[in-house]
Write a structure and sequence with these properties.
By secondary structure, this protein is of the alpha+beta class. The protein contains 5 helices and 5 strands, in the order βααβααβββα. The chain has helices at about 15-20, 25-40, 70-75, 80-85, 125; strands spanning about 1-10, 65, 90-100, 105-110, 120. The radius of gyration is 13 Å and the shape is globular.
């Protein structure tokens, strides 16, 4: 299915903050990823645990995003979005993208790895 998704990604690399947490020497980012993955699994389920997806992500082929800004705000707090912006991340709207699964908390989609989509738009100004 082709559609529109919203995503948090680094403005230089197009990588998401969860992938980058192991590649950056930033304690805040590592703490946020840990809290999302272990402390609040019900709010931040992995795709395998998300109703509607219930499978592992296909690494290198699929990426995580959100079906709308409401879903993104249910995942990230305003404070987290502000901290992510300071680290170079932005909220982008990506149109005409292949959506591979729609979950209760997130969506999976395909895009070229390690590349910012040309049909994306920075929405951080309206995200917070």
């Amino acid at each position: 299915m082709i559609g529109t998704i919203f995503r948090i990604e680094h403005d230089n690399t197009g990588r998401g903050c969860y992938v980058d947490s192991g590649k950056q020497d930033n304690d805040w980012l590592k703490m946020m990823v840990h809290e999302h993955g272990y402390v609040s699994e019900d709010v931040h389920p992995c795709p395998r645990e998300d109703i509607g997806i219930k499978r592992h992500i296909k690494r290198g082929d699929e990426f995580c995003g959100f079906k709308d800004m409401q879903q993104l705000h249910e995942w990230f707090t305003d404070e987290e979005l502000c901290e992510l912006e300071l680290l170079g991340y932005q909220v982008v709207k990506i149109e005409d993208i292949e959506i591979t699964a729609i979950g209760e908390k997130q969506v999976l989609f395909r895009k070229p790895a390690e590349k910012i989509c040309e049909n994306s738009e920075n929405l951080l100004d309206i995200a917070v």
